[in-house]
Structures are given as structure tokens and as C-alpha cells.
Amino acid sequence: MSTILFSNASVILEDRVLAEAQVEVVQGRIRAVGAAHGATSDTATRIVDLKGDYLAPGFIDLHVHGGDGADFMDGTDDAFRTVCRAHLRHGTTSLLPTSTVARHEQIIAFLQCCRRQCYGLGERDLWRSDMATRGARVLGAHLYGPYFGADARGCHPAGPLRPPTRAEFQRYLEFADCILRATVAPELPGAEDFVSACRERGIGCNVGHSHATFEQMEAAIAWGVRHVDHLFCAMSDRARLRQEQTYPMRGGVMEATLYFDELTTEVIADGKHLNRELLLLAAKIKGPQRLALVTDCNRALDMPDGDYIFGPRDGGEPIIRRDGVGIMPDGKSLASGVMGMDHAVRTFQHLTQAPLMEVIRMASLTPARIAGRDRDLGSIAPGKVADLVVLDRSLQVRDVYLAGRRV
Ligand SMILES: [Zn+2]
């Protein structure tokens, strides 16, 4: 593998944008980043002149279900490749395939695919010959459901919802080598047992689709929960909990997520789920180091408006793609996203006017840290894997590189 020198780039670093800079990539990893110091004398070096375009770290999506007609819960290698290729076109170079509430054997089939499709970050695996056809790296599964609160299930089917039982989740945790994060509603019986079993195996734990009280959230943090899925969506808050207790008013998952520094979280930044003020509130309280952008994208990414299934074709929930988002057939609630991470980055930046390096960080380094892969991924820094995205001045994706190779 030869050396590549990206020249004349506006390099988006963790804390600043470096204009007229260059980035040297050797053997798929970043060797040097800095101000331009003229052409190299090494003739083996390929020079890519970015003509002032942005060079950003590849995006990392912690919460993504599908794209281009396929859902990870279709449970085939083909479906995985289709989704990963689709998101690569939107600048996502790594992702966590996210499951849905489904029957036991469907979740097992999903985990088997994750194991086959998972990328290592060792030298031998860094750039595999089939990478261009496989698309974004599969870092490991986000085991999402079936352990959700019944009232907070959102667009997931009600039938297969269940509380965690050891006999069942032990089967899932046999795949612990390719599960990075797991979600549970802490108010369910068995939730503490599930979180401890995940933590023992090195799996990070999320709260999601939950109507827990603030006190139940405090307990969940003590068990080892450290992240909360899609802030403001499918979660309890003061108003919701007041339906069961008039006074004193209580905080729920939303208030706990904003309050506890131990918790990172994420927003679906498609401009449809959350209005500007909620993105501003999340960014102000959690900051770019604790807030990730996610797509929560379903199979309707890059597809025409119309009817789709969220989750597995067999047993998933009917949804509609309309107006740039997923909607439930009754038109009264949202049903996940239909846009890629490039859109989320542009939308968040446009709505909040946050500095570009902070927005990019929320789509790269922060999710890399939450996934436990920030040693290798998530920023343009010496030693990291050269997963890079070239963006023009209006933040449209021009090119994507995996381990220094254009795909
Ligand atoms: Zn969800």
C-alpha cells in the first residue's frame, strides 16, 4: 500500500479547522497532520489535491436500522452489505447495526450476521479486499430491544416485547465479542441482571424506550448504564410521569439524561424529530463530548416516499416515508429517520449554528468514544485509521476513504 498525501485541505480537527493543511496516510493509518510544507520528494506518494475542501473524520453512527430498501433485521449478509453501502455514500465509515424488537430467532440471525460482517481494526483486517463492496465498517451490534417499556415502544411491534430473562439473554451474550452496546428499560424486572451480565462481558449499556423515574435512572447508573438512546424520543419526562402521580412532580429519563454527567446521549438530527430549541438545549447541557448525532435511519434511506416495514419484513411494523421522515400509519407519531449522517451534520449545523468542528465531533469522535473505538477511529490524528470524508463548502459528501482508500 502506497503513501497518500492529502494537500490543500481544510482539515477538521477535534478542536479547530486547519486551513491549507496536509494529511499524510501510510499503510491505511494517518502518519502526520500539519501545515503544508511543500511537495514530497517520494515519488511513490500519491497526492490528492483537495483544493480547499474540508477533510473530516469519517462519520460513525451508533443508531441505525437500515437503508436502500434493506433493514439489518432482514438477517442476511446481503441486507447488511446493502445498508452499509448506502450509509457509506452519506459519509458514514463505521456503524453499529441496530436491532429492533423481534422474535428470539430473528435476533439470533441478526447477531450471526454481525459476527460474520464485523470488521477488525488490526493490520490484516484494516483494508480487506471486499471492503468496497461491503461499505461502512460494522463495528459491532447495538442490541436494541426487545427489552423496552410497553408504553414507550414507539414504532416497535408490541407482540415480541418482553422483560429480560437470564435464559434468553445468555443466548444473545454468547455473541458478546461482536456486541458493543445494549439497550434496556431499567424499570423492567430483570433489567439489573441484564446490565450486570453485559458489563461483565464488556458491553456498554444504554437506557432507551423507557418510562423510568429519575430515581430508577439513578439506580441504572449505579448498575453501569452510561448512555441514553435518542434524547427526547420514547422517554419519560415530568409531564408524562404526572399522569400517574399528581404531586410532587417528578423527573424522568429526560431530566436524568440532562442532569447526570455520567450519561452520554444522542439526538436524531434530521430536523424532523426535534426542533431547533431541543437540539440547542441538548448541545448546551451535554456539550459536544457527551452528545452524538445519530440517524436512527430505517430502510427507506435513498428510497421514494411510500409504505415500508420497520424491522424484519416478517413481523415488523408498517411505516410510511413522507416529508423526509418515517411516520406511523395513523400519522400521529414518528417512526425513525430516513436520512443519512451527512444530512444530520448539515441540519444540526444549520439549526444550531454550532462551530463546524463541534458538529463533526458529534458525528465522529464522540460516537467513537461511546462505541469504545476512539483509540483507532473518530478523528484526524497521527496513528488513527484513515477513514476520511471529503466535504465541499456546503458540507455535501465529495469522496469517502476507508483506511486511506477511496471507495
Ligand atoms: Zn428507538
Question: Could you explain how this protein is built, in words?
Answer:
This protein has 407 residues and is α/β, with parallel strands linked by helices. It has a single domain (59-378), classed as Metal-dependent hydrolases (TIM Barrel). Helix content is 26%, strand content 26%. It is built from twelve helices and 22 strands. Strands 1, 2, 3, 4, 5, 20, 21 and 22 form an eight-stranded mixed β-sheet that branches. Helix 4 packs parallel to helix 5 (191-200). The two termini are 15 Å apart. The mean pLDDT is 95. Bound molecules: zinc ion. Zinc ion (ZN) binds next to loops. Zinc ion binds next to loops.
Helix count? Answer: 12
Q: Give the mean pLDDT.
A: 95
- Provide the CATH superfamily: Metal-dependent hydrolases
Point out poorly predicted stretches: none
Oligomerization state: single chain
Compute the CA-based radius of gyration: 21 Å
Kindly give the count of domains.
Answer: 1
What characterizes the major β-sheet?
8 strands, mixed
Backbone shape = globular
Bound molecules: zinc ion
Task: Give the CATH level 1 class.
Answer: Alpha Beta
- The helical percent reads 25-40%
Structural class: alpha/beta
What would CATH call the architecture?
Alpha-Beta Barrel
Instruction: Determine the strand fraction and express it as a percent band.
Output: 25-35%
Number-wise, the strands total: 22
